[in-house]
Amino acid sequence: HRQATHLAQYAVGSQQVFILKSRRRTKREGQIVMTEFSSPIQLPVLPLRDIVVFPHMIVPLFVGREKSVKALEEVMNENKQILLLTQTDAAIEDPSQSDMYQMGTIGNILQLLKLPDGTVKVLVEGLSRARVDNLVDVGDFMTGEAIEIADPDVVDAEVVALGRATIQQFE
Predict the structure, then answer these.
(1) What CA–CA distance (Å, rounded) separates 54 from 124?
(2) Percent composition of the chain: helix, strand, coil (DSSP 3-state, to 5)
(3) 152-165 pLDDT, tens per residue?
(4) Residue 34 pLDDT grade (very low, low, confident, very high; cuts 50, 70, 90)
(5) pLDDT of 49-78, one tens digit each?
(6) Can you spell out the DSSP letters for 34-99?
(7) Alpha-carbon 9 to chain mean position
(8) Quick check: 32 and 150 in contact, CB under 8 A?
């Protein structure tokens, strides 16, 4: 399966992660292979402090920064999708692209509640992982050019055996 136009390799912890710029998945023994969809989407960015939202997680967040509130308002007027990026340093009040991790999560706003003190409580569901190439400050908030990354195919006999052993423990 060598239809990929570009293969990028990243080290994530002790794992080697390969990202293919193609819609076709390939399987390699003992490696994590992810498919990167080639068309980027532009989404408002919600910088997160001290939390990482993963796909399929539902998390309540309290948002107080003016730019973040404006980004949420913009999202609620459109398709309710937002780009969730964790800050590298939670103490930074107005983060730029270099202050946020390159990998994030595309999220869906399930519920938004404006509180009397001006903050916003939002319930967010992580949809899929995304890699951010470019962040742009559009004045009221920041937008990011994100490329969605599909869930990895893990092809390893040890992983399959561990999965079976875990399931047996619950039976």
Answers:
(1) 11
(2) 15, 45, 35
(3) 666 678 888 888 89
(4) low
(5) 999 999 999 999 999 999 999 999 999 988
(6) EEE-SS-EEEEEEEESS--PPTT-EEEEEE--HHHHHHHHHHHHTTSEEEEEEBS-TT-SS--GGG
(7) 18
(8) no
